[in-house]
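Tutorial, part two.
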Amino acid sequence: MYKIYTFGDFDIKYNDESILDTKGYQYRMLALFKYFITFNEKKLLPESIIEDLWADNEFHDPKNVLRTQISRLRRMINLDDKNLKQFYRIEHSNGYYVFKTNDNCVLDVQLFKELIDEGNSLKENDPQRSLSLLKKGLKLYRGEYLREIEYEEWIVPIRNRYRRLYLQGLFNYIELLKQKKMNEEIIKTCEEAIQYEPYDEVLHMYFIEALTEVGEKRYAISHYEYITSRLYSHIGIKPSLKMKMLYKKIQLDEENLKDDINLSKIDEELKEDYGNTGALICEPYYFKFLYNLEARKKSRNMKDNKFLGILTIENRGYLSTDEEDRKEAMRTLEEIVYNNLRKGDVLSKLNSSQLVSLLYDIEEKSLNIIVNRLQKKFQERCKNKNVILKIRFKSL
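Running the prediction step on this input gives:
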């Protein structure tokens, strides 16, 4: 059985082994194949195909180029190979080309649409079956449709359509989980979905609500602080009224967090109120979530400049430091780092002598400036001269 994967990383597999890894295919022929599967079973004029795919190319005879590429596509699988059989056909009738998959082929986007459409339609009358269908459909979505095609205009409306369908199915699925009070499953679902839709406010609201329901109010507040900062710094969007009301509700539900709201403190040792103009301070387990999220996003966008920093307080030479002096040095470091990083950066306390940080949208050449500034301020402000600050950064 052949399986064509169009969400996330494009691939064609036969018996779970990629045929793209074993056979070399020209870029132009593969682009044409992706175009055909996008318009599976649709009538396509040669002029439309040429305009969408090769409008910027000055071919002497573009229709002949198209015929050549289609001829190569028809021979894409070597029929003499006993282990492989052709899994699609390209028909030509009345001036139109029609691409069709055979019975030995599963197209993920087609199965995705069928499952999500049926799941959405059954939400009211058969919620249990709807839940099952939507779960299966959502698992097929592994990122944007044909995400490796970045700049071609023809793909934009199709990609947006599947994205809307994904979000519609996702939100219906979460609503059904809410009815069953399955908050842990909602949290898991949202964590996975945020990888693909990091800036959808509704998704983050579901996530924050579920965290609150399971008693993770500080985690919920940390996430609110983080995502509202990221939404504003990246795309200039301020939190909606609904998002703000949700935030206020969490505040009212947990009176003992009143002093923590602007700080997102990382533990009880962090007592001073630094305001809310510096880096986001969060708990270690939430920092781990953010790190994994950014690492996954980095694998899809190598242009992002993100760095992981480790800041360590150490004894100078063989000198020793008592516990109170070390705590005082750590509090000094926390305040310095908080006030000298940007509002969009993230900071957490790893242990009694180490901080970790995530820096966003920064050039590597600027790291030395940051390191020197932090070390200088620490040396000036730390009362105990037996401790030193070491800082290391690595690219995500």
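DSSP finds 13 helices and twelve strands in the chain. In part three we will examine how such features are distributed along the chain.
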